[in-house]
């Protein structure tokens, strides 16, 4: 299954190390392919920046809604990644 679009998600999670794993597992279950991942420690929280490939038929708004409702995760921004910026 190839990725048709590239999407960027930037979020913060509580300091619990399981939360970044839950975020990645949610994306994996929806068929997203992680292309780039950055995780930063900010003392009381983690900051995550994820570049994902979305297969055709995947609704990015649905993924964003799932992440917005995940306890302990706060989505800062999400959106289509311009192809001119590369992966």
Question: What composes the largest sheet?
Answer: 4 strands, antiparallel
Task: Please tell me the total number of domains.
Answer: 1
Rg, alpha carbons: 12 Å
Q: Number of helical runs? A: 2
CATH superfamily: ACT domain
Q: What structural class do the secondary elements suggest?
A: alpha+beta
Helix content: 25-40%
Give the SSE order as H and E letters: EHEEHE
The fold-level CATH name is Alpha-Beta Plaits
Oligomer: single chain
| Amino- and carboxy-terminal Cα gap | 18 Å
Taken as a percent bin, the fraction of beta residues is 35-45%
How does this structure look, described?
- The mean pLDDT is 87.
- The chain has helices at residues 18-29, 60-69, and strands at 5-14, 33-41, 45-54, 73-80.
- The protein contains two helices and four strands, in the order βαββαβ.
- The longest helix is centred in the first third of the chain and has 12 residues, at 18-29.
- A four-stranded antiparallel sheet has the order 2-3-1-4, with helices on one face.
- It is globular and about 35 Å long.
- With 87 residues, it is α+β, with helices and mostly antiparallel strands.
- Helices cover 25% and strands 43% of the residues.
- The chain has one domain (5-76): Alpha-Beta Plaits.
């Amino acid at each position: 299954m190839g990725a048709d679009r590239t999407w960027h998600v930037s979020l913060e999670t509580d300091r619990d190390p399981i939360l970044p794993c839950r975020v990645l597992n949610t994306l994996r279950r929806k068929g997203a392919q992680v292309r780039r991942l950055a995780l930063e420690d900010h003392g009381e929280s983690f900051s995550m920046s994820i570049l994902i490939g979305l297969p055709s038929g995947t609704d990015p708004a649905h993924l964003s809604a799932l992440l917005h409702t995940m306890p302990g995760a706060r989505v800062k921004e999400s959106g289509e990644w311009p192809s001119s910026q590369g992966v």
